[in-house]
Amino acid sequence: MKFRYLIFSIIAIFLVKPVLSADWESFKAKFMKNNEYIVDPYNNYRVTSEAQGYGMLIAVLNNDKYTFDKMLNWSINNLQREDKLFNWHWNGGKVIDKNNALDGDLFIAYSLLMAYKTWKDEKYINLFNQILPAIKQLILPILWDNNENILLIPAKYGFIHENEGTITLIPSYYIPFIFNEFYNYTADEIWEKLYNYTLNRIYSIRDIPFSVDYSLFSKNICKVTNYVDIDTYRIILYAYLDENVDIIRSSGTFQKVIEFYKKEGYIPIKFFLDGTPQTKENSPYCVYRWFYFIYNDKKLLEIYEKNKEIDKNNYFCEALDLIEKGLKRGK
């Protein structure tokens, strides 16, 4: 009887408190303060809405409700605005920039939806239903010649240029697997249209730049920046998580970058598309894994493994690696 009681007690412990992955526990020990917010050691220990969205999603993927709730409450109390979107930059006990960054808003909303599906707690879906309409206000559909362009305005302020008749778009803010999940839950066709526009138009731009301008006069996309960087490289991971990474290879989205890598042996953290001399600064290790997804070059994986052992304070790479593992594990 004592042995049986011991077995049941052990099972009960595991049911009450999930066994978290060692990688997630290590991540929290290095980058999380008070189980509430994630800091970026490479950027003056700042906190961003993006990092909070990443962390909350990883908490769900690791069945860590305690940490999720702590991060959620901190984000609401310190970052959330009256319009339900989130200030993107906090540091030193105060908000540094009151503008939002829509990718952060998207990841926070997505994590709430995933939390509701995982733990069936109504408060999560209620918060999701408050944030989603605010995000939708930054979606602008434009019908032209029987084609619908779905413009995702990156933030509330600074991206609509009325005098020029343009709107600046950031391709890495188009995240197809999130749009697909929103559509599956809400059945709102705007998310399906945004999903299709992401894959068929945004991710298919040859030699994609960091940002593009959309002209409200010509109803067309124009390149406006002459560089791509680690933020833009994220779309490889996002396409991979959506199982549509072939679109990037076939469209030549990062063709000039991979040509540079084959010649020089590394991927710059910032790559100039106009042929300007490239920075000698190497990309973070996770970028090499993403490029492996589309080009299947084992040397890229070798660089990933080598640099991962050296770079121990990169919250960005560790977070996105954990998201990749968690979402792929769930499929």
Automatic annotation (TrEMBL):
Keyword DNA damage: no
Domain of life from the UniProt record: Bacteria
GO MF annotations, alphabetized: cellulase activity
Catalytic activity: Endohydrolysis of (1->4)-beta-D-glucosidic linkages in cellulose, lichenin and cereal beta-D-glucans
UniProt entry keywords in alphabetical sequence: Carbohydrate metabolism, Cellulose degradation, Glycosidase, Hydrolase, Polysaccharide degradation
Enzyme class, first EC level, given as a word: hydrolase
Biological process annotations from GO: cellulose catabolic process
InterPro entries: 6-hairpin_glycosidase_sf, 6hp_glycosidase-like_sf, Glyco_hydro_8
The enzyme's E.C. designation: 3.2.1.4
Similarity-based family: Belongs to the glycosyl hydrolase 8 (cellulase D) family.
Protein name in UniProt: cellulase
